[in-house]
Amino acid sequence: MSSLLVVTGPPGAGKSTVARVLVERFDPSVLVEGDAFFAFLARGAVPPWLPASRAQNEIVTRAAASAAGRYASGGYTTVYDGVVGPWFLSTFAGATGLPRLDYVVLLPSVERCVERVGTREDHGFTDEGATRKMHREFARAEVEARHVLVDPPEQPDSVADLILAGVGDGSLVYRCGKG
Question: In the Cβ-directed half-sphere of 62, how many Cα atoms lie within 13 Å?
Fold first, then answer.
């Protein structure tokens, strides 16, 4: 496995659940939660799905990627759980300082994402409209099909198995700096 695996997708795609399953399969491993970096914004934060958040999102993305890259270059199998749309992938990848990473987009149906967002507990994000908007952005994004798991299985272990198969056969590799 490469030292950095980015698990992304719209809200409710199952990123956090699958990422936790993945890090349990490696020792040593690190889970970098992208949402935590947005929580560091103390005042003046703009909701990250709004157009006015672009500059803020770039700074947060670079900070999170830098941390993930440090762990990975330090010898930890690192799983990054967060929204890294294809539109921000080159920014994220460049900030890691790594030559490559593995990248996978989880893309269940929009209704499945909306249902999950509406029923999850202990998570501050519950906005259905923003979930639908971000799902559309991921669904329309230009990214090679090999990086996208459309309608992944319900069971997180099964999704993790599919991801690890893609890591193993090299189909999820993204070369940093080369796009």
Answer: 8
Taking Cα atoms as reference points, which of 10, 21, 30, 29 lies closest to residue 110?
10
As given in the structure block, the two tokens for residue 95 are 């900030």
CA distance 29 to 72: 9
* Distance set, CA 45 to CA 79, 135, 174 (Å): 25, 22, 30
158 — pLDDT class (breaks 50, 70, 90): very high
**Among the listed residues 39, 9, 176, the one whose alpha carbon sits nearest the alpha carbon of residue 102:** 176
Would you tell me how many other CB atoms lie within 10 Å of the CB of residue 145? 8
Q: How far apart are CA 132 and CA 84, in angstroms?
A: 16
pTM across the whole model:
0.94
Retrieve residue 120's tokens.
């999850």
Instruction: Give pLDDT tens digits for 82-139.
Output: 999 999 999 999 999 999 999 999 999 999 999 999 888 777 788 899 999 999 999 9
- Both tokens of 34, joined, read 């992208």
